[in-house]
Structures are given as structure tokens and as C-alpha cells.
Amino acid sequence: MKDPRIPDPLSWSVFTQGIWRDNPVFVMLLGLCPLLAVTNTAMNALAMGLATTFVLVCSGTLVSLLQRVIPKQVRIAAYIIIIATFVTIVDYAIQAISLDLHKALGAFIQLIVVNCVILGRAEAYASKNPVVNAIVNAFGMGVGFTLALLSLGIVREIIGSGSLFGIDLFGAQFQPWAVFVLPPGGFFVLAFWLFVFSLMRKRKETRAKQEEVARAA
After folding, report:
1. CA dist., res. 148 & res. 35, Å (int)
2. pTM (whole model) above 0.70
3. Fewest CB atoms less than 10 Å from the CB: which of 34, 166, 185, 215?
4. In a domain, 3, yes or no
């Protein structure tokens, strides 16, 4: 069993961990509140994913740099302060870029502070590994989270509005299914993607076992 005090060697798996093996949404089921709330359009999903990725990378970098300075007794409070600082930066940046986008994302920008994906990465990985590893791992987690948001946002916008990133796809004759841009639609699409992701993982595991048996034979 690996000693948690020993840092992980930098490898491709450090990056891909958050995209596939430990995807924050499809595997660990974290961050579902913003996932279901803001993915009624692909643009909202992309904006929330990029904002979360920025906070993940910046907070992971700072936590890794300060891991020997932050006392263990107050580490969670320190992590929250660090995360809140970068969330504030993101909040003001989105306001400066687009007020409409800021209104669409609403309170879920500020709620990035308590997103379990970010706090979990700070506690479980960034505080125990070198800064380069922390950056790569946080970026991979951010990419995985953004892909999950886009997976829902694209499907919900196409079916629920007949458009993608605000561009009309089917013309006036298309009859959108409005339920998909409402909260119940988020649950329907999430269930679909969880099923697809689970099926893909099982097939990959079965193929790996078959290859292992073939090599052993």
C-alpha cells in the first residue's frame, strides 16, 4: 500500500485521473448542484467549467506551495480562504466580461467556494504533492468537470431549445422539448450520461481483463 506521505511521480495518469478514472461528476458524483442548475445552455456550462478549472488550478498551486507553512490544525479554514480569494477574482472577471452571463450563473459562482471537488483536491492531493503535480492534477480535474458540464449542457440546449451556443440548428419548424431546460431535464440527462459512462468503464475493464488473461496464456 502506497505511503500517503510520499508524493506521486509526475506522469500522464496524474492528468487523466480527473478526466476518466476519478471524474468528479461521473465517478465521484461531486459538484452536482451547479451541474444541474447551470447546464441549461452549453455556454453557461462552459463558463462554469472554466471558472471552476481556474479556481482549481490556482488554489491547488497555492496550497501546494504553502503546504509546509499552513498549520495542520487550521488547514481546512486556510484552504477555504484561498479558494474564496480566487472565486472572488472569477466573480468580478465574469461581471466585467458579461453581465448577462453573470446573471445566468447567479449564486453558483460564489458557491464554487464550497464545491467538494476543489476542497477535496486541496486536502487529498495539493497539500501532499509538489506544485507541478498539483497543477497538472487540478487541471485534469477541471477538464473532467468541464467535459461533464458540457455533456449535459449541449444535450439539454439542443433538445430543449433547438440551438447550440445560441445558434439555431433546426429552424422554426422544430418543436423543442422545454422540459430539458428545466430542472427535471437536468436529472434525465445526468442519468443518461451516468449510464453511458458506467457502461464504457465496464467495457474497458472487461477488455483489460481479457488482455491480461490472453497474456498470461
Report:
1. 8
2. yes
3. 215
4. no
